[in-house]
Each structure stands twice: as structure tokens, then as C-alpha cells.
């Protein structure tokens, strides 16, 4: 049982906090306590406690932040459904990761744990068939939160999903009945939905060019809004996230590859969620690599003794296989290509990411896209040559240069070719 496993891990810590509270040695149990404990088991226990009021009822009413989820298990028969918090009003921030940059993990867990996921089994090709399918589609089309009432066949259950592809959410339950009120479609998205002769790729790129948030496009693809009429289908949420990041970044690259190269190394640095981000734009034709280093005690390396480091790379012509490091690779690539479009320059892109002990729970691929975007919005340090680049890296990252090079196809290639202004004074 979930409660037994989580509470078993956290019982001693929770008892310790209660004793300290009673003695007046720490503040009463609050987000402050959990922020400073930095303990995965305790955060999960807190998550469980926050969701308990939601799992003791067979219905929920509130303003859905136009959020939906499409599962992937048993594909092509998958669970689709709305995501609804027990509150009314402007809940849009709950489903807009573009607005989460300045939040802590605790803020995100607290916020997302309020959302209940409804599940309804259907075939992915049933996008135009059925009442539930229609309402899920309406959620994806909506331009603002819509009032929803959901009745469940059983009480919701809690299961913390430890994966970084999708953002966390609260309890889940099979839907018995679902009602949606006061839905107003986003006219830009609705126009793409009405165009059954346009490919999904065309629809995604047009929406992106018109300023529709990436997260909104991802929901649209997941809900089967785009593509040739006969080919439309529901797309599992975790697949749609990567598909949109991949498609949009490839589209950006078509323009980026027509530009001249940057004439010096641009180095950008940023810290968020106890992640250190160091992004380099290096003179040369397009290449790209992203490397992630997870410290012991963090997501994906919770019980490890050593730093876990891995990455993925592509040359000028891109990749033919799925990136080893998963969806984070494509979300980072999207952010890098956006910056190059803004600069109207071509470059070799390199992302170095150190994940330190404060990152104790995955919060979704948006974390990479939005924080690489934030990194690239900082003022760059201009460097000339590998020596300066490595010297700068030493001032920002804990991991040594030798380790980065050992785990980087791109850096090994640059060292062997000696081709990035090594002798520019």
C-alpha cells in the first residue's frame, strides 16, 4: 500500500519534526520545514498528506485549468480524462509550466497535488467518437479554465510517479460521469483544429509561430486536435511533450542553419531548483549535446554513491535514433534553437547540467526547457578558445573538466580538431 511504504520511510523523520515542534525548537509544520529537510521520503509523505482530503470522496467540482492527461499503458487502448482541482476561479497557473520558473519544488508539489486526474478508457483512434472524448477535446481547445464536475466509480488513489517526462499531479480515479460548463475555445487553436487537410507538423509550427505556449500545443497534440482528419488520434501525454519539442526545434533549425556562425564562445549560467545550468554557444556549424550529472541523493540517483552522468549528441544532420537521455534532450534543444533564432546566428550548442541534492523529486521536462530558456536570457560571458571555456566552467561547476570531457562526444571532437578560435587573441 502506498501509505505504508511512504510512511515507513518517513516515520522517524516525521516523529523527529513533531518532537522539535512541541519543544518549540522549529517552526510549526509548514512548507518551510519541508523545504529545509530536503528529504525525498518526507516530501512524498507531505504529498500524501496534502492529497488525503481529495481521496475520500466520489466526486469533485472545480475549474479545470484546461488540463488533461492521456496515458500510454495498454496502447492503443489508453486512459484519457480531465484534470480538475477542488477550487473555482483562475486556475490556469496549475497547467502552465511556462509560469513556474521562480517556484520551488515544494511550491510545485503543493500546487500540482491539488489536481485530481480522471480516467476513461478508450481507443486512441476514437477522437471523434463519444461524449467523453469530445469533452477532453474541448478542454484542449479552451482558452481559459472551465468549470467541471466529475463523478468517480471508486475513490481516487494516490501514486507518485517518479519520472521526469510529465509534471506531478494528485490522485487518480476512473470517471463515472463528467460535465463541463462555460467552455470558450481559443480561436487560433480552433482554426488549426478545423483544418483537417493540414498535417500535425504544420499545425504545431503555425501555432508556435503565433505565440501559443508550447505546453498548450502539447495538450492539443495529445487530445488529437491536429493532423489529417483520417489520421487524428489521442497521443499519450509523455509522447506528445517530446514530439512537440522535437518538431519545433527541427523547424527552428531550418532557419538557424542559414545563418553565419557566432564569432566567439557565448557562455550562459543560471541556477534553479538546485540545478546548475551552463550553456555554451560555440563557433561552428550546428552540433548539439546535452549532458546531465545527477549527484547522489537526487532524482535518478537517490541511492547511488557516485555522480551519475550521461548525455546525448547530434551532428549537423541530426539524430536517427531517440536520445539516450530522453525528453530532456529535445526540450533543451528547443530552447537553444530559439536563442539562435533571436541572435540570427548558427552555433554549436552545449548544455552542462549539474543536479544537486535539492532536486529530490522530478517535476517534468518543462524544467529543462524553461530553465535553459532562463539561462539563455542572462547576459553572456564572451570567451575565446577552449582554455578560456574550461577555465570559466571551473568557476561555475563542481565537476572537473576531465569528467565532462570523458562524457562528451562534442568536447572530445573539439579538442581533437582544435577549431574554435584557439589562437584568437
Helix/strand/pairing category: alpha+beta
**What is the general shape?**
globular
Structural domain tally: 3
Would you report the number of β strands? 12
**What strand order characterises the main sheet?**
1-5-6-4-3-2
- Number of helical segments? 14
Strand content: 15-25%
* Low-confidence residue ranges: 1-18, 25-37
Mean pLDDT: 87
Largest sheet entry: 6 strands, mixed
Cα(first) to Cα(last) distance is: 64 Å
Subunit arrangement of the protein: single chain
Helix content: 25-40%
Order of SSEs = HHHEEEHEHEEHHHHEEEEHEHEHHH
Q: Tell me the Rg in angstroms.
A: 23 Å
Summarize the structure.
The chain has about 425 residues and is an alpha+beta fold. The protein is about 40% helix and about 20% strand. The strands form two sheets. It has a six-stranded mixed β-sheet with strand order 1-5-6-4-3-2, covered by helices on one side. The protein has a six-stranded mixed β-sheet with strand order 10-9-11-8-7-12.
Describe the structure.
- With 425 residues, this protein is α+β, with helices and mostly antiparallel strands.
- It has 3 domains: 2-181, no CATH class; 190-249, no CATH class; 265-417, no CATH class.
- The protein has 14 helices and 12 strands.
- The chain has a 6-stranded mixed β-sheet with strand order 1-5-6-4-3-2, covered by helices on one side. A 6-stranded mixed β-sheet has the order 10-9-11-8-7-12.
- It is globular.
- The chain starts with a helix and ends in an 8-residue tail after the last helix.
